[in-house]
Specification:
The chain contains 20 helices and 31 strands. It is an alpha+beta fold. The two termini are about 45 Å apart. The mean pLDDT is about 95.
């Protein structure tokens, strides 16, 4: 279903061609990270800490090195000291000093599963046996696992050199509070004084994992001339190249990264967890290639999940439904090293609403858990769970319909976001209107069934993008791009180029290549790729048209300015040739035209969504069944509607898992106790109904095709929408994720007590 403000006259955009990578995917021909096979290949394994917090007293690798079949063992001593320097890493930035210490532990281990050493051998089994022979002596230290507790005076200190950064100033005492931020506008006290109703609540959310199918996998060869080649499953080949360059102290020109097909990422595949150890092992193994493939347990223990959090929200409103003031405090777990998505959470938490009096405080806190990574709208789900639950409670206390309350306070073009920027054209109000008008919202509910709504926001991204293309004599076009295809960027890029050239999407042959074969390209994250590659491929198409027009001008003996191009046809003074015919004709006397475009794009249009969910609650078991789900989202303009719907459905499904089942469970000693997919409970097809999508199309004015990012927003509203639905069904307001059966049962019993 689509709600559209204006229908552009597109021929290709908005259609649903067969995906260009479809055949390889369904036939098994697609090559993923673990599929890389090179002559003389060795196999690497990583030794991981059994403790959450301990000082490393000694590491003895001699027995492992002596095992027949072992070619090399590396530890942090094989890495040069990293600079205290910040570098872009996917959707965020990281300090190289902390990145190095995360990849191979230095003086301390800081979480259960922290990498300590790596082994290369002629088989996986020999490498596993070698790990058992490495002797590590530890001095155990008390762990701290909760962000709020870690931020308090007297908590065990993880990083003795860490000082709190606030307003550009650094503190002078060791701390676990890496940074704090504040967004403030208006008079908060006056705003609350003007309120007729005030709601103040505290919320907790658990750490959760992205849950991608394919584990991290890398193959690296460090050649005798100090050239490094890496084949890896990553969302950002250039980000891996740059990280490897910095940590191994080599120029980027000596490192070539080839991104393989990616079996899911959702923000979690930017960090060189396996790339650096594989390269080091290759160098010590007389330059033979080394492949490291993580197990599922390793993925859960030692890659970057998203933050658990404690969030406090206070909001006030007048009797007429106008929000007068809003305040939020967000404590986010960064894991063992600074860098939680609290900044993004602080930007998301109140973004859908027009607020004159607001204060948001964010705290980035290190704890004895794996360092967090991006996960689809990083920090947004936590934030919206808190704010959208309070929004619903405010509406109830005012006797207002929850969607009408949201619509009354909806931010619009020209309003200032709580974290500062002024909105350009946005479609939040339109998503709420579509929800109000949707049959789902007025459908009859059964007993013990509840209906909930919630809204969500994401900034969406832009950034550097590079593309090149050449026209073949048969009129087809080879398109080269640098963005890892994680959600359909190959087909969307092909479609946007085809639209510009007036040819079918099937006539464009897209390919993602290595870092030596294309210009610098930002990572695939933040719902940025379709936006930025759309801008560059559109310009690429214009450049190709201009070159072909110039060649035709010589052929037709006319001025090139006289040549018009419309719907794939070149014409001038009685001459006319379609794109395919023109390519064939020009090839007789001209080199095939080619073009290259590289630019730093901007103008990303923010995305908004409003979700409706029906649930049924079994009060005997605490089980929550999702009965019906409708996800309404402003997508700007849907390039390939099937991909857009798939992104929305996937994000909603992940949000449902986070809401009801998914969580990292640690014991008191900091051991992760559910490090398998049997115990880490993600939703399956049996847990979910069909997720219906409504595509609201408010075009982004800063994009040639009106594109807004899609993939981040749909994970933001589900948790709050389900919590509001549970309240509608039971009268119990849940304040902690996941809302698992045991937790819901306790809340139900407390209500009855």
């Amino acid at each position: 279903m689509a709600v559209q403000t204006k229908t552009p006259n597109y021929k290709v955009i908005g259609t649903r061609p067969i995906r260009h990578d479809g055949t390889d995917k369904v036939t098994g021909a697609a090559r993923y990270g673990a599929d890389t096979q090179l002559t003389g290949l060795l196999y690497g394994k990583i030794l991981r800490s059994p403790h959450a917090h301990a000082r490393i007293l000694s590491i003895d690798t001699s027995k492992a090195e002596a095992l027949p079949g072992v070619t090399a063992v590396v530890t942090s001593k094989d890495l040069a000291p990293a600079e205290d320097k910040v570098q872009e890493l996917g959707e965020d930035v990281t300090n190289l000093m902390y990145l190095s210490a995360n990849i191979l532990a230095q003086d301390k281990v800081l979480y259960h599963g922290h990498a300590i050493a790596a082994v290369a051998a002629n088989s996986v089994h020999v490498a596993e046996e070698a790990l058992k022979l490495i002797e590590v002596k530890y001095e155990l230290l008390p762990p701290v696992l909760d962000a709020y507790e870690a931020a308090q005076p007297g908590a065990p200190i993880l990083l003795p050199g860490l000082r709190t950064t606030s307003m550009g100033e650094k503190g002078d005492k060791p701390t676990n509070l890496a940074s704090l931020l504040r967004h403030e506008r208006g008079d908060l006290a006056a705003g609350f004084a003007a309120a007729d109703v005030i709601v103040e609540r505290e919320f907790r959310t658990a750490m959760v994992h992205q849950g991608y199918i394919e584990p991290q996998a890398s193959t690296a060869i460090w050649k005798a001339d100090d050239q490094i080649e890496i084949w890896t499953t990553t969302q950002g080949a250039f980000q891996i190249r740059d990280s490897v360059s910095e940590l191994l102290r080599l120029p980027v020109s000596q490192i070539r990264v080839t991104p393989t097909e990616i079996g899911g990422g959702f923000g979690g595949k930017f960090t060189p967890y396996t790339d650096i150890p594989a390269a080091l092992l290759s160098r010590k193994s007389r330059h033979r290639p080394v492949k490291i493939v993580m197990t599922r347990t390793e993925v859960l223990q030692a890659t970057g999940p998203t933050s658990g959090s404690l969030i406090r929200v206070k909001m006030g409103a007048k009797k007429d439904g106008t929000i007068t003031a809003a305040q939020a405090e967000l404590y986010y777990e960064a894991g063992a090293f600074p860098g939680s998505p609290v900044g993004a959470g602080a930007g998301v938490i109140l973004a859908p609403y027009k607020l004159d009096n607001v204060r948001i405080d964010g705290y980035d806190v290190v704890v004895n858990r794996p360092q967090t990574g991006a996960y689809r709208a990083p920090g947004g789900t936590n934030a919206a769970f808190a704010s959208e639950s309070v929004i619903d409670e405010l509406a109830e206390k005012l006797g207002m319909d929850p969607l009408e309350f949201r619509h009354k306070n909806a931010a619009k073009e020209g309003d200032r976001r709580p974290d500062g920027p002024i909105y350009q054209r946005i479609g939040y109000a339109e998503t709420v209107e579509a929800a109000i008008d949707h049959p789902h919202y007025s459908a009859v509910k059964g007993k013990k069934q509840g209906r909930g709504v919630a809204s969500g926001f994401w900034f969406n991204g832009a950034g550097p993008s590079s593309v090149s293309a050449n026209v073949n004599p048969d009129g087809t076009v080879n398109l080269i791009e640098g963005s890892t295809d994680i959600g359909g960027s190959r087909v969307s890029a092909a479609m946007m180029l085809a639209e510009t050239l007036g040819i079918p999407a099937e006539d464009v042959h897209p390919q993602v290549v290595d870092t030596d074969s294309i210009g610098y390209t930002g990572g695939t994250g933040g719902s940025s790729v379709t936006h930025k590659i759309g801008i560059t491929t559109h310009q690429l198409g214009l450049d190709l048209r201009a070159k072909m027009a110039e060649q035709l001008a010589g052929l037709w003996e006319v001025d090139k300015e006289s040549i018009a191009f419309d719907a794939g046809v070149f014409s001038s003074n009685g001459h006319s040739l379609g794109f395919q015919a023109a390519a064939k004709k020009l090839a007789e006397s001209n080199p095939p035209p080619s073009a290259f475009v590289s630019m730093r794009t901007g103008g990303a249009g923010p995305g908004f969504a409003t979700h409706i969910v029906d649930v049924e609650v079994d009060e005997e078991t605490g089980k929550v069944q999702i009965l019906r789900y409708t996800a309404i989202q402003d997508v700007g303009n849907a390039i390939h509607p099937s991909y857009v719907e798939g992104q929305i459905q996937g994000g909603a499904a992940q949000g449902i898992g986070w809401a009801l089942n998914e969580e990292y469970i640690y014991d008191k000693e900091g051991h992760l106790v559910n490090s398998s997919l049997l115990d880490y409970r993600m939703p399956t097809a049996l847990d979910l109904p069909m997720i219906d999508c409504v595509l609201v199309k408010v075009a982004n004015p800063n994009h040639p095709f009106g594109v807004r990012g899609v993939g981040e927003v749909p994970i933001v509203p589900p948790a709050a929408a389900i919590a509001n639905a549970i309240y509608d069904a039971t009268g119990v307001r849940m304040s902690e994720l996941p809302m698992s059966p045991p937790r819901l049962l306790e809340a139900l019993w407390a209500k009855k007590a």
